[in-house]
Description:
Order of helices and strands: HHHEEHHEEEHHHHEHEEHEHEHEE
Number of strands: 12
Number of helices: 13
Helix content: 40-55%
Number of domains: 3
Strand content: 15-25%
Structural class: alpha+beta
Largest sheet: 5 strands, antiparallel
Amino acid sequence: MTAAAGPGLIDELVLGSTLKLEELIDRKALAELMESVRDLFRVPVRLYSEEGRLLADAGAENQLYAQLSESRPLRVALEEIVQRVKNLAPGPDGIARMSCITGARYCVARVEYDGHSMGRFILGPYALPGGTPDVAALAALEPELDAPRTTELFGKLPAVTDELATQIGAHLSRMLDLVLFSEHRALLTSQMHLASVRESFRELEDKSKKLESAYTKLTELDRLKSNFLATMSHELRTPLTSIIGYSEMLVEGLAGELSAEQRDFVQTIREKGEQLLLLIKGLLDLSKLESGTMSLRKDHVEAAKIVKDVISTVQPHALKKDVRLIQSVDPGLPRVFADGERLGQVLLNLAENAVKFTPPGGTVSLEAKLVRMDPEPLGTQHGMVLLATKRSGVEFRVADTGIGIPENERARVFDAFYQVDGSSTREQGGTGLGLSIVKRLVEAHDGNVSIESNQPAGTVFVVRLPLRHTSLG
């Protein structure tokens, strides 16, 4: 939507109440126009603003006035005449005429625009056809006047009638009116555009402030949410640990022998309690990662050992589902700079998901190998990506032959609580926190995680970590 200019600006531009002639005209172009009139009629022309400021001068060398000005009395008299001419008020027809002490004539034509007086053209001095100088008046001021020379120079003045001078002045006024109309329209368009831009900028500034305020509120709400999750996770974990502990003691018979049915019930309580504890731990990890309070104890760790531990942990579940596990680690793989516990958590989460979503008879593989990673962010920020050297890193690939993830869902699976199958009848359980935690942990190690398709079926999660800690400071 285009913003509208205020009434004050419209009045100023349309009515021209505060506009000045010098603000609307191109002085150079106008001077060329006046010079062409002077060359045609030999009449000197000058344009003055309403305040008496000379804006354009198409005068001519005047030997008569130059000679007379050598006499101080005559110079003073001529200066007074010039001042009176400049202040001469044109009549209702826009024209005024005045005689000089020399017998020459001046013609003044008013410049009007939109009903407002903007300035005046002054034509002259010029002589009437057949006119002669007023030698007596000049001699009264300068007794030593050279009358013959004065008469000779007076004859060199342009000779035009008052009617022709009036026509020239009126013609210049009409031409200038057209120029003013064109320039005023351009100025009006420009000012309206500027007013529209200013109004648009003001609206954008207001929206920016509102967005900034909304962002601040959302940031505060996000902080409160993280604090709430951390507090609730801590408060829930304490009683839940007791529930799991007492259920274990009941299963072990420390409170007396249980019947088979009672043992099954208590075992169910224990299993569901452990599931709930994992959920609470996930919420606590997520809140720490979001608030930046999770500390990583990084060191140079063996990637092969972490892969082996993950395979050992997932093996019972895989055997139960009849899923084959494959591990592959490049020999001589260097150590990776990471928090071993958190890296194991990342790979364990991906491996457990792979087993969970792989049908019986399928395969899950965990591979680790040395790769070349993209340059450090510092190089790309300064436009040095072409010169930056790639980093060495370790790539972990967790591939399965399961149901796979649709391509349009791959970017969203890393969002907290997001489920590809969000229906209440989905076959696989879960909270949707695991992959979100995986992504945040990997990024906390200056690495990245992505998803590839595993043709003809399944999914491949790729985790890349640099061998050395990246420092941007």
